[in-house]
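Progress narrative, work stream C.
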Amino acid sequence: MLKQTVSEKKILEYIFGIVAPGTALREAIDKIQEAKLGALIVLGNPVDLKDVIGGGFELNTVYSPQKVYELSKMDGGIILSTDIKTIYGANIQLQPNYSIQTDESGTRHQAAHRVAQQKGNLVVAVSERRNKITIYYGKFRYMLNEIGDLLTKSSQAITALEKYSIAIEKNHINLSILEFDNMVTLYDIVECVRMYGLLFRMSEELIEYMAELGSEGRLIKIQYEEIMLNKNETFNALIKDYQVNNEKAEKIRVRLKSLTKEELLDDEKIVSLLGFDTDITNLDEKIEPRGYGLLSNITKISRKDREILVKEFSNVQSILMSTASDIAKLKGVSKFKAEHISKSLKRIKNKTIVDRD
């Protein structure tokens, strides 16, 4: 999949919101495809389109998929309101400026491409011969995928997402052990961040598949949400633990998502992302976590509580050595909460010992 700009992603979100399975317009398109018919559908007000349309007849009737299907049996185009609630007219001839460049071959698709470019409207062309759906929106063009192909790609993406998720869990277990032993190196962090990068990259791809699948992607969406549960939060904690440039974790996550797969395999790219100087930094360099990851494993404490603890104790080793009495002395932390944190830390210690074995 080609890397997309932010504007292209927004355009696709808009397009899928109109033509994905489960939408009113897609129901009509599916009927047209099943009957092996072609169609040319323009979204917009006829008044605004008067310089590119001619002939046909006015309807101004309430939209229904069945009506659009019946109207597609005629040769001309169909004009719908942008909210897909009104059928303005049918059997309309599109008469765009023929000097506008298009690389489409069929008459229907050429007209659709030119109208979209000239007027900026969304135009749907259903190919009778190829049985394909092409969407034109301004200069943007997108050919919808077959549902079966999308489901296959989504299934493969889910498998890859699970693989990266499992790798991240293993990395976190390993990091916990190393943090308790005070033996974390920059290499360990780079490996963990890399897995997050691959996960987020695959996640972006899967989000697009799900958007295009619409109602057909319900099961995929459930699987996706289960895999991605708390991933942003655990990544943010990792970054806050080990970064040296004090940049917001959310911004680093955005920058990580923008890296290509090749760049994710480049250690220096990730080291730089964390704020380290790539000229003088050694991957074997030992680094000390601040404690955000450790404290994120404790329930019933707020973000503010975690900030207070990190500010007071500075690193994981100091947090681990703290007693309930030490924690209770902190402003804003009650004696009851201090006991809860202390007991939770002991449970985490025991779990880490089990994981090590």
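Work stream C, second folded protein:
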Amino acid sequence: MGRGVKVGGGLGGGLVLLVAILLGVNPDLLQGLTGGTDTPQVQSQGTAPACVTGADADARVDCRITGTVNSLNAFWPTYLKQYGVDYPRPQTVIFSSSTNTGCGAATSDVGPFYCPTDTTAYFDPGFFQELVDRFGSSGGPLAQEYVVAHEFGHHVQNILGYLERAQQDPQGPESGAVRTELQADCYAGLWVRHATSVADPSTGQPFLDPLTQTDLNDALSAASAVGDDRIQQAATGRVNPEAWTHGSSQQRQAWFSRGYESGDINQCDTFSAATL
């Protein structure tokens, strides 16, 4: 969950509270992890017309989220099956302003997040403009899709038993929290690697067109924008690795790239990595 994180220190004698920007899972919300549901669902809490075509996904952020969710839910079951792992599909909620979740009430301020209690990923499309305006991401389509894939990476971690490690060691440059977030970045890169070949069952066509370097740069830009060091520097003028919960910009880009370049989930084992 995009969580409130105390970083740096000393601005007016207090700590700076950064809310809703870090694309992760709140360790405080990881109590009582539960299994998922086999019913895929994208709920939109509004009155926007349905998302039907690829052109809809090109034109509207909510439809792009929906298309990305469909791609992720087509990719992960088949990929994990080769390791003997079932993939209970998570639900997805696209909301505006506020929503109720299994992890408690949430507003747009918290940014995108995954709640393990109800195995649901939550997205407010307005976040993606905030990612550009406030955090300097390039804002291209793959930047937005990276965010969705990262949250679904947390669902995969929930299935595989990694997600709870964030709570056991929630802060610091080598912490379980950082390793959890970087692994989700790696899983996002893994999906990107395969997204141009995984077909939509209803059409037989891949969910994504072949990627360009510009597309990949967009995803890397988003990963960099939400690095702990970059956010701390902007907020406090200094970097404090001991307060990290998600990893540096360079680390987030590196682990996304590792997933993309290898296409191998075994290369995403941040918990066994000697260095991040």
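The chain has a mean pLDDT of 80. No further action is required on this item.
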